[in-house]
Amino acid sequence: MSAAWVGRSVRVLSGVVVLAAAGAVVLAGVRVPADQAQPSGAGGREVAVAPAASTLVCAGPLVLPDGAGSGDADFDPVPVDPVTTVTGLAARTEGVGAGPVTATSLDGSGSTGASEASLPSGGGAFVVDRPTTPVVVVAEPTDVPARVAATSSTLVTAGDLRGLTAASCQAPATESWLVGGATVLSSTAHLLLDNAGTTPAEVLLQVWGPTGPVDLTGERYLVAPGAQEVVVLGGVAAEQRGLVVRVQASGGRVTAAVQDSALDGFTPVGTDLVVPGGAPATRQVVPGVAVTASQVDDAAAPVLRLLAPGDVATTAHVTLLGADGSMTLPGVEDVALAPGEVTDVPLGGLPTGAWTIVVDSPEPVVAAAEVTRTGTAGALDDVPPVDRAWAASVIGADDALVALPAQVSATVTLGAVPADLASGSGSASGTATLRVLGVDGDELVSEQLRIEAGSTLAVPVADLIENVSGTAAAVEVVGGDGVPLVWAVVLEVARPDGVLVSVVDPVPAGTTSPDVTVREGSRLTLP
Fold first, then answer.
1. Which DSSP category does 66 fall into?
2. 451 to each of 410, 429, 462, how far by Cα in Å?
3. Is 108 left (phi over 0), alpha (psi -120 to 50) or beta?
4. Is 203 helix (H, G, I), strand (E, B) or coil?
5. Alpha helices in 400-519 (DSSP H)
6. Neighbours of 187 (CB within 10 A)
7. Residues whose CB is less than 8 angstroms from the CB of residue 220 and which lie 6 or more positions away in sequence, other chains included
8. Nearest CA to 237 among 216, 212, 211?
9. Would you state the torsion angle of the CA atoms of residues 439, 442, 445, 451, taken in this order, to the nearest 10 degrees?
10. DSSP characters for 17-38?
11. What's the Cα-to-Cα distance from 521 to each of 43, 44, 235, 328, 524, rounded to whole Å?
12. Of 91, 194, 341, 485, which sits most exposed with the smallest number of CB within 10 A?
């Protein structure tokens, strides 16, 4: 197969992203070309540390339930083929793009029918169609770090896994906090652990549920290099109606996500990937909470999930930031949290629109929100299907990107979150530049944004490119002055039986390493 990357095919939309050393100064295991070392005071040299490559790991195809693929449309839990796509882009700024980019299967063996493909320097977009394993994207830098993002998305239009499942590809880490999912009878949760490194990673799991920390039947796992480990959370932490999972890796870095799906009898009520959010902190911010109209007692109403993982009880103060500023929902403003117990806070009655949720607490907490879209009941089922999406807490970044899957409606939601929410917005605001990037990695259009402190702005990408020739391949938000901004992208697909939804977090652009001073040390004289 001549044009394949990691699945059945790959389409190269532009010369995208997909390594020379002479004499060098050795610093902490990094070879630095000698001609980059410049004299400095006190007998030292200022050494420019070359930026590192950017590595992202993208989720592969969904884990299918037992009985899938039986060929019997009446009994197959997934009667249609899930369509998985990895979409990526390396951005260009003022004509400067990334170095070479490669996209490979996780094990790098090509055993899935595709070995690997490389694209030259310069920036641009790529699409990997129907990968059969997780995908590893490596973008080499030029003189500056590569600014690259990729998104894995899966569309399932019928069956138990009906829904739009999307997530930004992650950088491997030694610790991840996953807030979302359940293991009660109607729910299924698979923990996906991917090791894109060259050494084995030992993974330690901690799980919390509504009654406190869960005594696991298995808590340690060894993930081989270039391999994926799938942990059925219902087997190690059964009958938990709300989960928070902490993943700690040693010996290597891993990426982690929870595939969360649920049924109401035989009716699908959503599938999504729970991705890592912020580690425990006294403030958590959850953007991208785009809700539709709901009643207080709706079973499919949005939910805020909270956990204080320490040993001390606390009270979380919840602030909801919408288009017109902050609002209070009865019973939601102050939430008592017992130590180690997962708490779900219903958000039924929250007005339609995009919201940013801010959680402040004297003790460190973790947080995420679940949004829903209720569809239309079919001729054979009087229960309407539902799709669900988890929005993770994020840390604001001055420059970050989201790659956009094709044929999906995308809305950028931005929240301006001042340090002191109690003081009100006054005349303060936050500014940013929202850039829409085309398939060549260059800017199609940009918009200067000013967002009043304590509010949320929703910007449909289709509105930005309405009068522009070109296809939107990614969005980028570059921070400006004033109140800090946090953002996410809400993805939707309209189907005859209802809207499918997912929320995607931005991928921070690479940062330039500061120069370091190297001084000559004492010389050892051998006898």
1. T
2. 19, 5, 20
3. left
4. strand
5. 461-464
6. 21
7. 202, 203, 204, 205
8. 216
9. 110
10. ------SEEEETTEEEEGGGEE
11. 10, 10, 56, 62, 9
12. 341
Q: How far is CA 100 from CA 16, 328, 402, 442, 511, in A?
A: 7, 49, 20, 17, 18
At 264 the three-state DSSP class reads strand
> What is the residue-wise DSSP string for 307-336?
E--SSS-EEEEEEEEETTEEE--TTTSEEE
Would residue 436 count as lying in a domain?
A: yes
Local confidence band at 511 (pLDDT 50, 70, 90 cut-offs): low
Q: For residue 315, give Cα distances in angstroms to 191, 318, 343.
A: 29, 10, 12
Q: Which amino acid is at 108?
A: G
Contact 375, 292 (CB under 8 A): no
User: Does residue 406 lie within any of the structural domains?
Assistant: yes
Highest mean predicted confidence (pLDDT) among 70-84, 137-151, 333-347, 423-437: 333-347
Q: What is the mean pLDDT of the chain?
A: 86
Residue closest to 128 by CA, chosen among 169, 177, 71, 88: 88
Query: Is residue 49 pLDDT above 80, yes or no?
Result: no
DSSP state, residue 523: P
Which one, of 472, 407, 410, lies nearest residue 440 by Cα? 472
- What is the predicted pLDDT for the residue at 107? 86
For residue range 249-293, what is the model confidence (pLDDT) as tens digits?
A: 999 999 999 999 999 999 999 999 999 999 999 999 999 999 999
- Contact predicate 438/454, CB 8 Å: no
Domain with 43, as residue range(s), is 1-159+400-416+426-485
Query: Which of 70-74, 217-221, 303-307 is the most confident on average?
Result: 303-307
**How many Å apart are CA 477 and CA 509, to the nearest integer?**
10
Contact indicator for 139, 327 with CB cutoff of 8 Å: no
Write down the pLDDT at residue 520. Answer: 62
Q: Is residue 144 part of a domain?
A: yes
pLDDT given at position 527: 54
Total domain count, the chain: 1
Give the contacts of 436 (CB within 8 A, at least 6 positions apart): 443, 444, 445, 446, 461, 464, 465, 468, 472, 474, 475
Per-residue pLDDT band at 114 (split at 50, 70, 90): very low
d(CA 442, CA 476) in angstroms, rounded, equals 11
CB 41, CB 505: distance < 8 Å? no
Q: How confident is the model at residue 99 (pLDDT cuts 50, 70, 90)?
A: confident
Tell me the β-bridge partners of 346: 303
Residue 313 in any domain: the answer is no
C-alpha–C-alpha distance, residues 429 and 358, integer Å: 17
Q: Is the pLDDT of residue 33 over 50?
A: no
Q: Which helix (H) or strand (E) holds 347?
A: none
pTM of the model: 0.87
